[in-house]
Amino acid sequence: MPADKIHTFGAALYEALRSRKTIAPLIEQDPSLTLDDAYAINLDFLARRVADGEKVVGKKIGVTSKAVQDMLGVHQPDFGFLTDWMHVDGDIDIDAKALIAPRAEAEIAFILMAPLNGPGVTAADVLAATQSIAPCFEIVDSRIDDWKIKIVDTVSDNASCGVYVIGAERLDPAGLDLPNLHVAVTKNGAPLSEGYGHAVQGDPAQAVAWLANTLGAYGVTLDAGDVILSGSLVPLAPAVKGDRFEMTLSNAAGPLGTCVANFV
């Protein structure tokens, strides 16, 4: 794709973010868009945010579970970047973060102590590079009209990422059976959903390995200190002001940690 067209789409997504308005699906605007084009648009979009003062602090993998793939009609994982502006430590101010149609996802976050550079990264490599894991809510959002996304739309739109919240607990993954970690989610005090670590590519560590290998093909590494969101364990749920989501991560021995997403 010509560079000027990449810049045009990147600028359109950036303007949609800042103005809190959506745009028509990119694949409808240009049916010839490829996944490589989408990644180039993603980087252009990100560069505009970095120029605004945002700092990249991690990466994310999305659309990993069958439940989410079926909800969105996107049947392969996607990937994007996390910035410091996207991290919320406390209540989620929908207006301040320019959220349009937010949806909450319960995930496991990996905090890295060593870099991962694909290709060839394995789940064992991921565990060796991980300082800790933590319960996490990713709040996905879309700058595309009515969430009518295909894979090139969501990749271009930074994997439909809005903001994220990480719980206080930091857990050593050594000795934990990540595929069988259980998450239970409530919404406004009522049970909403539950799932297991194996919902994301059979193992959250395997999902992170996929991310490292996929980004490695584009010359991007997972870096020491990065926060890596490994994908939702449950169907994503719409959120509005006043909603409170809470997730509890546990194993057979009992609860391991919690995270709260409180929308104001």
DSSP helix count?
7
Structural class estimated from helices and strands: alpha+beta
The geometry reads as globular
Q: The biggest beta sheet, please?
A: 7 strands, mixed
CATH topology category name: Fumarylacetoacetate hydrolase, domain 2
Number of domains: 1
**CATH superfamily heading:** Fumarylacetoacetase-like, C-terminal domain
Low-confidence residue ranges: none
List key phrases describing it:
7-stranded mixed sheet, alpha+beta, Fumarylacetoacetate hydrolase, domain 2, 264 residues, 7 helices, 27% helix, 4-stranded antiparallel sheet
Task: Provide a concise account of the structure shown.
This protein is 27% helix and 30% strand. With 264 residues, it is of the alpha+beta class.
What does this structure look like?
With 264 residues, the chain is α+β, with helices and mostly antiparallel strands. It has one domain: Fumarylacetoacetase-like, C-terminal domain (Fumarylacetoacetate hydrolase, domain 2). It is 27% helix and 30% strand. The chain contains 7 helices and 11 strands. It has helices at residues 3-19, 26-29, 35-51, 66-72, 123-129, 151-156, 204-216; strands at 56-62, 78-83, 103-112, 130-140, 161-166, 182-187, 190-196, 227-232, 237-238, 244-251, 254-262. The strands form 2 sheets. Strands 1, 2, 3, 4, 5, 8 and 9 form a 7-stranded mixed sheet that branches. Helix 1 (3-19) crosses helix 3 (35-51). The longest helix is centred in the N-terminal third of the chain and has 17 residues, at 3-19.
